[in-house]
Amino acid sequence: MECEKIRDWFSSLLENELDPLEEKTVREHLASCSDCQKDLQQVEKTIRWLHSVQDVEVPDGFLSEINKKMEERKRKVPFLSISLKLPVQAVAMVAIVFLVLYLTKIMPVEKLLMKDAKHTKPFISAPLTTEKQRDQLLAKKEMEKERVAAQPPLKEIEKSKIPASEAIPVPSEKKKIESALITKEKASPAAKPPQEIILRTSDRQKTLAQLDELLQQFGGKIITTEGNTFLASLPAATFSEFEKELLGLSSPGKTDKMVQEKDIAESDTVPAGAKRIEGEEKAMKPSNLATEQESHVAIRILLLQE
Amino acid sequence: MELSPKIGKEVIESCKAGDKEAFEEIVLHYQKKVFNIAYRMLGNLEEAKELAQEIFLSVFDSIKDLREEIKFDVWLTQITLNHCRNRWKYLKRRHYFASDSLDDPIETEDGNMPRQICDPSDNSETFYEKKMIQQLIERGLLKLKEDQRELIVLRDLQGYSYEEIGKLFHLPEGTVKSKLHRARVNLKEILERFVH
């Protein structure tokens, strides 16, 4: 430690920059420490070598070359300012325009892809085989078609339940419901379809009878029937039990429940009093149904005959 | 290693006004210092010449912006060091120093010389003694960190005072002294590795 501190003073010692007391300390230490003596000699030699280095002569024609370069630069400046700067700016502008176009074009595609990816993701089910997944997709497409067709009767049923506050004054009740629906959808970007269950069956009549029985048992009812698509209403409290029973109607592994992941997240984030059903119904039926029947769940059941 | 007397204020003022003759006077007055700093910082004569010429061209371009309170010498040294730093980075990126080996010939002002790994101070006044020292210092400097090399070049090779270096680097004199000492010790260790 003592040596280190002393060695830090070597440069100052060699340049006579130490005060007398500091110099005395260093000299006393050096007298008794051969390592520091050696080190001082090495530092002294390094500085001596450095001081012995001569300046290098400037190459001949140094100034004339500078003058030549100045002349060359003068000639190049106008050329540079026109032929380089402008194209650089123009190229930059074009690049920005293309980038913006590219981004605006690619974004919706990405959104659609994401939407599709979420929609096709099963909510509850073990990994499906390719065949089953294909079936599921077909069923979903069919449901989408039928959903459009099923909406008018649904709205007719619910029309009397539209609250004045949410209703938009349009000539027909049907349009009113549609408008309310659109408004609601716009207001809530996270609007979602209701619970959707696909039942696969070989005996339609039998399954229908069983479905009716189940609904009665759990205090629910079928609101609308459109071909093989049924919209049922059910008390929220009995929904999970009903769902289990309903899944039992179909052959094992052949019943698919399709709910967007968002549904779950939404049900967790909605404020107290606003039940999951409210969010679920927004996209499919008039919003007032939820306000009037807060404890009911809407379920879309699709029968697929095998 | 004596500093050349400072150039007259009127020459600087004339150069600011675009006087070519005044500029040439400045070049002739400072060319050796600028060229030598560049050479010691880069270790290559051709690069140093190119860079020193660029430095004077940029002096001519920007001298009109030089404020009264800033000394021309300090300003010129700052420009020189900045150019050296940029060129050093540029050369490093291009692996200019990648082939640096102890066995490589060393370029000197007299041309390339084969490296001799021996301590010149051990020989009694050999013909090459001075050249050997020059080579070793040159090589050793390039092995130092850039900021340490700058300190040694300015203080030990160009004879700048601690006060001038302090102003250049915006450091107190005490800090300059201790940093310089650290740089010298590092160079000493590098040179010891070279000769053993």
Description:
The complex is a heterodimer of chains A (306) and B (196). Chain A is an alpha+beta fold. Chain A has two domains: 2-52; 130-305, no CATH class. Chain A contains twelve helices and five strands. Chain A has helices spanning 2-7, 10-14, 20-32, 34-52, 62-119, 130-158, 173-187, 204-217, 239-249, 261-269, 276-281, 287-292; strands at 195-201, 221-226, 229-235, 256-258, 296-305. In chain A, strands 2-3-5-1-4 form a five-stranded mixed β-sheet, with helices on both faces. The longest helix of chain A has 58 residues, at 62-119. The relative contact order of chain A is 0.10. The model of chain A is unreliable at 120-129, 150-171, 180-193 and 253-293 (pLDDT under 50). Chain B is mainly α and 196 residues long. Chain B folds into two domains: 1-98, RNA polymerase sigma factor, region 2, helix turn helix motif (Rna Polymerase Sigma Factor, Chain: A), CATH 1.10.1740; 99-196, Arc Repressor Mutant, subunit A (Orthogonal Bundle), CATH 1.10.10.10. Chain B contains eight helices and two strands. Chain B has helices at 9-16, 20-42, 45-62, 72-93, 129-143, 146-157, 162-169, 173-195, and strands at residues 106-108, 111-113. A two-stranded antiparallel ribbon of chain B has the order 1-2. In chain B, helix 6 (146-157) crosses helix 8. The radius of gyration of chain B is 18 Å and the shape is globular. At the A-B interface, helix 2, helix 4 and helix 5 of A face helix 2, helix 3, helix 5, helix 6 and helix 8 of B.
